[in-house]
């Protein structure tokens, strides 16, 4: 069942989204060669707690950390640890926070120092693909309109669109109905209504779309070993259009 949020509930979700945005902003400011992914986790945790919220990923399905940190060929669900970031790496940081019973969810991919032009383009176009999807998050469209916009944009740019992991509804639970795939036909899926809140999150590979999971049971990597980028926003469908909740004003 797709749960519609009241104005009051969307106000709570604005606050959850704002705190996620602050945490990602704080992480983005400390990313540099030599920092460990565990240190990024600590920066996010501290920011979330300082604002009175709870790191929502900690313990979710048993996830052992506060944020997901995925480096280079890691697509999603990387576990922070002792790995040091190096010049030319890219790091995807996925962050969730819960406050007053409501969740926010957002992800960004950050270059570490100078990256190659093709990797810079992957990051830029993945962010663009997210915004193409958000433009379609309009009452009266179907979920597939978002999916189709993301897929056509990313594939036209020459990249692989991951299919195994998808966006989702979000509210009191981190993951609610409906699923929001990053591929598909515009006329498929549930009709979007004002009051729906969706996490839209393209995962885009420099090479092919094929991915596989790894021995730690969490980290997903590209099969061809090429880099992958991930951008995500929590978006409320308002009567006058999409409102991004995980963006700083
Ligand atoms: Mg996320
Ligand atoms: Mg998500």
Rounded mean pLDDT is 98
- From the alpha-carbon coordinates, what is the Rg to the nearest angstrom? 17 Å
Question: What is the number of helices?
Answer: 4
Low-confidence stretches: none
Explain the layout of strands and helices.
Blueprint: H1 7-30, H2 37-50, E1 54-55, E2 67-71, E3 74-76, E4 90-99, E5 102-111, H3 117-135, H4 143-156, E6 160-161, E7 167-169, E8 176-180, E9 197-200, E10 203-205, E11 211-213, E12 220-222, E13 228-230, E14 233-238, E15 241-244
Antiparallel strand pairs: 1-4, 2-4, 3-12, 4-5, 6-10, 7-8, 7-9, 9-14, 10-13, 11-12, 14-15
Provide an overview of this structure.
By secondary structure, the protein is of the alpha+beta class. It has one domain: Creatinase/methionine aminopeptidase superfamily (Creatine Amidinohydrolase, Alpha-Beta Complex), CATH 3.90.230. Helix content is 29%, strand content 27%. The chain has 4 helices and 15 strands. It has a 5-stranded antiparallel sheet with strand order 8-7-9-14-15. Strands 1, 2, 4 and 5 form a 4-stranded antiparallel sheet that branches. A 3-stranded antiparallel sheet has the order 3-12-11, with no helix packed on it. β7 (167-169) and β8 form a beta hairpin. α3 packs antiparallel against α4 (143-156). The longest helix is centred in the first third of the chain and has 24 residues, at 7-30. It starts with 6 loop residues before the first helix and ends in a 5-residue tail after the last strand. The mean pLDDT is 98. One magnesium ion (MG) is lined by residues 94, 96, 105, 107, 201, 232. The site of one magnesium ion has 5 residues, from loops.
């Amino acid at each position: 069942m797709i749960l519609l949020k009241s104005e009051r509930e969307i106000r709570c979700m604005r606050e959850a989204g704002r705190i996620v945005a602050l945490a990602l902003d704080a992480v983005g400011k400390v990313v540099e060669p030599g920092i460990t992914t565990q240190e990024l986790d600590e920066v996010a945790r501290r920011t979330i707690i300082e604002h009175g919220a709870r790191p929502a990923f900690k313990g979710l399905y048993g996830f052992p950390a506060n944020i997901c940190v995925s480096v280079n060929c890691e697509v999603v669900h990387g576990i922070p640890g002792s790995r040091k970031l190096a010049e030319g790496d890219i790091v995807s940081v996925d962050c969730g926070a819960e406050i007053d019973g409501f969740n926010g969810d957002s992800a960004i991919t950050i270059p570490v120092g100078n990256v190659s032009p093709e990797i810079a383009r992957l990051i830029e176009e993945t962010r663009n693909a997210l915004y193409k999807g958000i433009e379609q998050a309009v009452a009266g469209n179907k979920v597939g309109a978002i999916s189709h916009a993301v897929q056509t944009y990313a594939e036209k740019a020459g990249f692989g669109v991951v299919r195994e992991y998808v966006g989702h509804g979000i509210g009191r639970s981190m993951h609610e109905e409906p699923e929001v795939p990053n591929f598909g036909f515009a006329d498929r899926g549930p009709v979007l209504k004002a009051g729906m809140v969706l996490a839209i999150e393209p995962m885009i590979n420099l090479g092919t779309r094929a991915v596989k999971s790894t021995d730690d049971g969490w980290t997903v990597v590209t099969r061809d070993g090429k880099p992958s980028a991930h951008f995500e926003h929590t978006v409320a469908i308002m009567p006058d259009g999409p409102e991004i909740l995980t963006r700083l004003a």
